[in-house]
Amino acid sequence: MNVIPFDDPRLTAFGLLAEVHAGLTARMMPALTTAGLSEVDFGTLIRLARSPQHSLRMGDLAAQTGLSTSGVTRVVDRLEREGLVTRQACATDRRASYAALTDKGLEKVQEVLPQHLNDIEESFTGLLTPKQLESFLSTLRIIRDVVHPCATAGAVEPGQTVRP
């Protein structure tokens, strides 16, 4: 039997990643909760806000958020009832539809964003030098592209701009 030591750096790396994610999520939640948003709601809204014309095909939104097709439908249904998102038909494919951020949705994101960015700075990015952050982001993208290759579906291409 092949015995793997419990101090294997692979276990340490994965354990640290899980601890950091849990800790950061806990620190980010108060700002989201105050705004009446769940982590999934905010993740959906910020993805739309960062996309061209503040909209994404529903399938691309599902891929980016890591939700199933039915899961993203439920989130968009809820956000639509709250007036934060609207559905739009695709002009070229009647089977497809887009989720688009409404003005109210954009206002909600802009309401939450200052505190959210402050929380990120205090608990995460502000702890790293610019060089460390650049290296960290590069490393995360390498891993993300393997474990979640659809995460950039519908994202802004280099040279494109997102309308303010």
From TrEMBL:
GO terms for molecular function: DNA binding. PROSITE patterns: HTH_MARR_2. InterPro entries: HTH_MarR-typ, MarR/SlyA-like, WH-like_DNA-bd_sf, WH_DNA-bd_sf. The keyword DNA-binding applies. Keywords: DNA-binding. Residues 10-145 form the HTH marR-type domain. Pfam families: MarR_2 (PF12802). This is DNA-binding MarR family transcriptional regulator.
